[in-house]
Automatic annotation (TrEMBL):
It comes from the Bacteria. Keywords: Repeat, Signal, TPR repeat. Residues 1-26 form the signal peptide. Residues 744-876 form the Ancillary SecYEG translocon subunit/Cell division coordinator CpoB TPR domain. Pfam families: TPR_16, TPR_21, TPR_6, YfiO. Residues 69-159 form the Outer membrane lipoprotein BamD-like domain. PROSITE patterns: TPR (PS50005). This is Uncharacterized protein. PANTHER family: LIPOPOLYSACCHARIDE ASSEMBLY PROTEIN B, TPR REPEAT-CONTAINING PROTEIN PA4667.
């Protein structure tokens, strides 16, 4: 309206100018020009355009063509063909470099861009215009255009500046009013509603062509400012004027009455408007407001029905989200949370960026949380799109950025997912600067940390709550829980101070007593028995809930457990039993008391208590452990039968806290100590066969293997021991390997002994076991005649055992001496043998040392000394009947034989044959006697002894030599007989 009025005023001037412009001479062009001018002057715009276009077509190069283009544009403006008009103006400016209307044409080009909605080009042209023509009359007309472009671009600061300039430059009151109205609209759209109100009122005081528009807009503005009665006054005037705003003004009047809760007035007007065809586009809003009025007047069913109809009849209505919100609210009120949740989800999906969506979600979720329906609350809170709040809804977006993670955190916390709860709650703290909101989040964070056992974090969060919201609703609870958290992180003095500041009257009763009990238990665990006792006694006060009285009595019994006086502790326990005879704490208290008695070496009293537990409280969790402790105490008292009986009872009625394999193991030892080896082995067998994954399997298998060896079942024992070795048990496998080696020793399988014992030289198997294994490894090498390797290993063993009293030290000394002899170092062998005799005077195998000494002395040709040494072997109590004694006797004969004292040799050899039943040495002694007779040329006797060896001991080493000697003796007898005949 404002822009068209300006066009018409300008056109009158232009038309006068045009009519006054006449061609100098009459010709075809002049006549056509005159026709066009006449039609233009009569405002016959279509005919004028036809004439203009005919002229331009017939006389494109005529001198009047340029000016005519300008007037053609003016005519097109009146026909609202702004695009073609702009082209005419641009053609004019291009063809006519100097003309009185150039400035007007430049203005028209910008104006046409504006009217064809090419605001960017319009802005450029208008800015160029005002820069080039600051003193032109159209300058004041260009400023409002630029103001409106800035307003359309929401550049409110620029728009305000331009409208104020336009107002100052306006050449008339009417244009001042138009500029003031533009300013008012700018202030309104930028949210400066009070300033906008002032500008509207100022505009309405001017000669304003859009007065009714301004009055309507002011009425709506007053509505937005909450001045509903004032709004009704302005809007009533508009409604009565009967212009284009009249009907919509009536709707705003109804809305104003709605806002002041004048339900009859509002309802009456809405009912009237519902029949207006002109307001059909507002029918959804009318239906919505009517439904709300029904709800507000208590007609809930009718109101909800109308809202449902609104959703069905107007699914694209901007009021659908509000309708859904009130349907969700009604479902919450009636307790139909499933329906409320469904409605809230619909809001999230269909209207994610409407204010009603977070409001509905908040309403439903809080009700779910109130009912402790945490999973359902969380399900709604993680719906896709729930985070989307329109940025322009600043307050709602800011509130939701806190409330959404806060509600998610509370729902997760209620559902037990403390980690996720803390993550959401920490996000909530960051999202707000409002102390009360931060306090709520810190309190919930404290609860989450408390439940997850993060006591330090709990203390920090509760303290933070008190810092940001010291007088908040949860201040007393935070202080109470802070005290509890401080106690659990060891800050007992701070906990005492904080607890003393708690206002009990402001705390929820149950929370207060629960936390007091927890504090008491923490203090007791920390060893602060005086404070623990004080708190427990507080719990026992008259009037307290029974559960806390009982907890207090139980706590006092714990406090008195290790009282110096047994009577004090016993009295406390008896009080607990009297006050709460069915308390599940009694067995635990009794168990703890028994432990105290054990520490005081009062095992008998402890046994009595353990027996009381499993006798009087057989169904308690403590009963199995008490029976086990009693069995162990009986075992220590060597009452193995009674202990075994308890172990059997435990096996028959297993407890989740006791392992059956462990019970079989203990029963096995009780039976073993009782002397029932076979019964004990049966327990080891049960573990081996039924509990292959047990930690006790290897040890049980080892014990069973030991039993099998004593039962003469080495094959089964070896199989079990090999399984232990294959299991890789670091503790038992080395011992199993050693026992396998020992079995091989018993079977004289020296190669197997070496294999098993060598394994134990590797790894960390314990020094003692490694020394023993090294000894038997060396011994196996000795028996395999690997004398060099054996000597080296025995030397290592001797170095390791030097200074230790070990049973086989003397054997090591003997073997070292024997090996020196085997390796040909007879002097060293003699030295070591004599050293061993001195170092081990009680050595049971001393005769072996004497035998070795005899051999060494014989090698030194000290035959007399050798015979004395051999004789000690023969005279030995332990060795006199041994093979070594037979060998020593044989060697005595050898010393005489080497000294050619054949008669003494025969006597010595004869003692071997007569006194010892060792075939090898009997054969050897008979052979040597034969040799003595052979040397003495007593062929018959020599043959007799050789025959006896050959016939009586054919499998001995000496039988072959006896055959050889027989052949020689026969030859010599024949030779000797021939010579005798010759002499005869």
């Amino acid at each position: 309206m404002m822009r068209k009025t300006k066009l018409l005023l300008t056109l009158i001037l232009i038309a006068t100018s045009f009519v006054m412009t006449r061609p100098a001479c009459a010709d075809g062009a002049a006549e056509l020009y005159a026709v066009a001018a006449s039609q233009y002057a009569r405002k016959d715009w279509e005919a004028a355009i036809v004439a203009f276009d005919r002229f331009l077509y017939d006389y494109p190069d005529h001198s009047l063509t340029g000016a005519l283009l300008f007037y053609r544009g003016e005519a097109l403006i009146q026909l609202e063909d702004f695009a073609d008009a702009r082209k005419s103006y641009q053609d004019f400016l291009q063809r006519v470099p100097t003309h009185d209307n150039r400035t007007q044409a430049e203005f028209r080009v910008a104006e046409c861009y504006y009217l064809t909605h090419d605001l960017e080009a319009a802005q450029t042209q208008f800015e160029t215009f005002i820069t080039a023509h600051p003193d032109h009359a159209l300058y004041a007309h260009a400023l409002p255009y630029l103001g409106e472009i800035a307003l359309a671009d929401q550049d409110y600061d620029m728009a305000e500046q331009l409208f104020r300039k336009a107002k100052a430059a306006a050449p008339s009151l009417a244009m001042q009013g138009e500029a003031e109205l533009g300013l008012a609209r700018t202030l309104r759209d930028s949210g400066q509603l009070h300033a906008a109100r002032t500008a509207y009122r100022a505009a309405l005081k001017q000669e304003l062509t859009e007065a009714h528009d301004a009055k309507f807009e002011l009425g709506v503005l007053e509505y937005r400012l909450g001045e509903h009665r004032v709004a009704v006054e302005h809007l009533t005037e508009v409604a009565q004027a009967g212009d284009r705003h009249s009907d919509i003004a009536k709707l705003w009047i109804a809305k104003a009455y709605y806002e002041v809760r004048d339900w009859p007035q509002a309802e009456q007007r809405l009912q009237e408007l519902a029949q207006e065809e002109k307001l059909s586009q507002y029918r959804d809003e009318i239906d919505y407001l009517s439904a709300r009025i029904r709800l507000e007047q208590g007609e809930t069913s009718e109101g909800l029905t109308q809202l449902e109809q609104l959703l069905a009849n107007h699914p694209a209505s901007p009021w659908c989200d509000e309708a859904l919100f009130y349907l969700a609210e009604a479902a919450v009120v009636t307790g139909d949370l499933d329906k409320a949740t469904t409605t809230a989800k619909r809001l999230i999906v269909e209207y994610p960026q409407r204010e009603a969506t977070p409001q509905a979600v908040r309403l439903v979720v809080r009700k779910r949380l109130e009912r402790e329906e945490y999973a359902q609350a969380n399900e709604l809170l993680i719906s896709p799109g729930i985070d989307e709040v329109a940025p322009e809804m600043e307050k709602t977006a800011a509130a939701w950025s806190f409330e959404l993670p806060y509600l998610r955190g509370v729902a997760r916390l209620g559902g037990g997912d403390t980690n996720q709860a803390m993550r959401h709650l920490e996000a909530a703290v960051v999202a707000t600067d409002e102390p009360q909101q931060q306090g709520s989040a810190y309190y919930a964070l404290g609860l989450a940390a408390d439940r997850s056992g993060e006591d330090g974090d709990a203390a920090r969060h509760f303290a933070k709550y008190l810092e940001v919201s010291p007088s908040g609703a949860e201040a007393s609870a935070s202080r109470l829980l802070l005290a509890s958290s401080l106690a659990r992180i060891g800050q007992l003095e701070d906990a005492k101070t904080t607890y003393a500041q708690v206002d009990r009257a402001l705390c929820e009763t149950r929370l207060y007593w629960l936390t007091t009990r927890r504090l008491a238990e923490t203090a007791l665990k920390a060893g602060d028995k005086p404070w623990a006792g004080e708190l427990f006694r507080k719990l026992t006060q008259d009037g307290n809930p029974e559960e806390f009285v009982k907890a207090g009595v139980a706590g006092l019994s714990w406090v008195q457990l290790d009282a110096a006086s047994d009577e004090t502790s016993t009295a406390a326990i008896e009080q607990l039993i009297e006050k709460d005879p069915t308390s599940t704490l009694i067995p635990a208290v009794l168990s703890a008391r028994a432990q105290v008695l054990l520490q005081r070496k009062q095992a008998s009293d402890a046994l009595t208590i353990y027996q009381q537990i499993y006798r009087d409280y057989p169904e308690s969790d403590a009963a199995p452990a008490a029976m086990l402790s009693a069995a162990q105490l009986l075992n220590q008292r060597q009452e193995y039968g009674r202990a075994a009986e308890l172990y059997r009872l435990l096996i028959q009625a297993p407890s989740k806290d006791l392992q059956r394999d462990d019970l079989h193991y203990h029963l096995g030892w009780a039976l073993h100590d009782q002397g029932s080896a076979e019964a004990a082995a049966e327990q080891w067998r049960i573990i081996c066969e039924n509990y292959p994954q047990s930690q006790l399997w290897s040890d049980a298998a080892y014990r069973r293997a030991e039993y099998l060896l004593t039962a003469q079942q080495p094959a089964e024992a070896k199989l079990l021991l090999q399984q232990i070795v294959d299991s890789g048990d670091a503790q038992v496998a080395p011992h199993a390997t050693y026992l396998l080696g020992q079995i091989a020793v018993g079977q004289s399988d020296w190669e197997a002994v070496a294999t098993q014992m060598a394994k134990l030289a590797e790894g960390n198997n314990g020094e003692e076991l490694q020394i023993m294994a090294s000894f038997w490894h060396a011994e196996s090498l000795f028996h395999q005649h690997k004398f060099s390797e054996a000597s080296k290993l025995f030397n290592e063993v001797e170095a390791l055992t030097r200074g230790r009293e070990l049973a086989w030290n003397s054997t090591v000394a003997l073997r070292r001496a024997q090996l020196a002899a085997h390796l040909g170092d007879w002097d060293e062998a003699l030295r070591l043998a004599e050293l061993a005799a001195v170092s081990h005077p009680d050595f049971e195998q001393r005769f072996e040392l004497d035998y070795l000494r005899g051999r060494c002395l014989a090698r030194q040709a000290n035959f007399a000394g050798a015979r004395r040494a051999y004789q000690r072997v023969i005279d030995s109590r332990l060795g006199g009947a041994s093979e070594t004694a037979a060998m020593a006797q044989w060697m005595i004969g050898e010393t005489y034989f080497h000294q050619k004292n054949y008669q003494s040799a025969i006597q010595a050899y004869s003692r071997v044959a007569a006194l010892y039943d060792f075939p090898r040495w009997k054969a050897g002694s008979l052979l040597q006697i034969g040799k003595c007779y052979e040397i003495s040329r007593q062929w018959d006797k020599a043959q007799t002894y050789y025959d006896e060896v050959s016939a009586g001991y054919p499998e001995t080493f000496f039988a072959g030599e006896a055959q050889q000697r027989l052949s020689v003796v026969r030859q010599r007898r024949e030779t000797a007989g021939a010579k005798t005949t010759e002499r005869r």
